[in-house]
Write a structure and sequence with these properties.
Blueprint (H helix, E strand, L loop, with lengths): L2 H13 L2 H40 L2 E6 L2 E3 L2 E3 L9 H10 L3 E16 L2 E10 L3 H4 L4 E4 L4 H5 L4 E4 L1 H7 L10 E4 L2 E9 L15 E4 H9 L6 E6 L5 H15 L10 E5 H44 L1 H9 L4 H38 L7 H27 L3 H5 L3
Parallel strand pairs: 5-10, 7-9
Antiparallel strand pairs: 1-11, 1-12, 2-3, 4-5, 4-8, 4-11, 6-9, 7-10, 8-9
Amino acid sequence: MNGTNLFKIALRALANNKMRAFLTMLGIIIGVASVITMLAIGQGSKQSIQSQIAEMGSNMIMIHPGGDMRGGVRRDASEMQTLKLENYETLRDETNYLAGISPNVSSSGQLVIGNNNYPSSVSGVSLDYLDIRQLSVDNGSMFTEADIQSSAKVCVIGKTIADNLFPDGSDPVGRVIRFNKIPFRIVGVLKSKGYNSMGMDQDDIVLAPYTTVMKRLLAATSLQGIYASALSEDMTEYAIDEITEILRREHKLKDNDADDFSIRSQQELSTMLNSTTDLMTTLLACIAGISLVVGGIGIMNIMYVSVTERTREIGLRMSVGARGIDILSQFLIEAILISITGGIIGVLIGCGASWMVKAIVRWPILIQPWSVFLSFAVCTVTGVFFGWYPAKKAADLDPIEAIRYE
């Protein structure tokens, strides 16, 4: 018996029991659709996180004072004063792998103009800070190197600050605001960046020359941190090694001394978040994959019923010359047809459900081609795996006993 005839017989058998065949497919349909939708949500979240990290500067490096042990008690890193302005200047002049570097000092307080006020903080930075954090000025201009040298009382503000201090929509550039009784003239407004992946408002920001913040607000000589950016993402590790070597030399640390500073990169954050996202995606896909197993068990159950119902038919076919391999192929084709048809419908529903999630819930989704192929391959294997045993049972029936079966 050739393959075409076996295929026609299998189609005819399924057509005779349309509702039963559809209900059998339902488990596969739900399983495939669930897997595709869950993977699309997981991959979409991962892509969203990566793009937001890239917007913050994927090659950004953050240097902070390190904790220290004094009398058996570990002091908080924020209390340490291990980063000096001289360290920043040495790094700026000697590093080979950095595209930009900026000191960072900040002071919290209340911003006031007229009857409007808003709680925020002023960050003291250099000109490189805009490139490091992927920021740009939308209105006005950035303060200048001359402003840094003269500790000028000027600042650049984010959109959130502008909206709260100037609710009437007037132009903030040129206006004078007060921060902890110190007047600052606004020279520019930054382009809006919105919220990042951790829910932080990137527009709630006030930038001023670091010399101004250190002298006029903090009266401090130490830095709270140093921000830098590597020449490229691939050179981040080289840049970190170089920074570590220079800072250890500047701080006169011996070989067996621990670092009195800490260095973090966006790559670490990206790796951690991607790892968490991948774990959640895998968990969701496994939960959804259970539906595929349930659907496969449904196929096995229905094929068992089909073999039992058609025992006499099997006996008649074998008595007129059908071989065991023909009977096996016939029932196996039926199982695979159910599985593949359910898989196709599941793929369509899964893609549609993913787009609905994006349109209605506003979650980021990304349908990867491999997830569709994987789901389809799994459902095909499921049909073969769970259809094999009932088909083998049908092929092993004794023709005489099968004909006599009531």
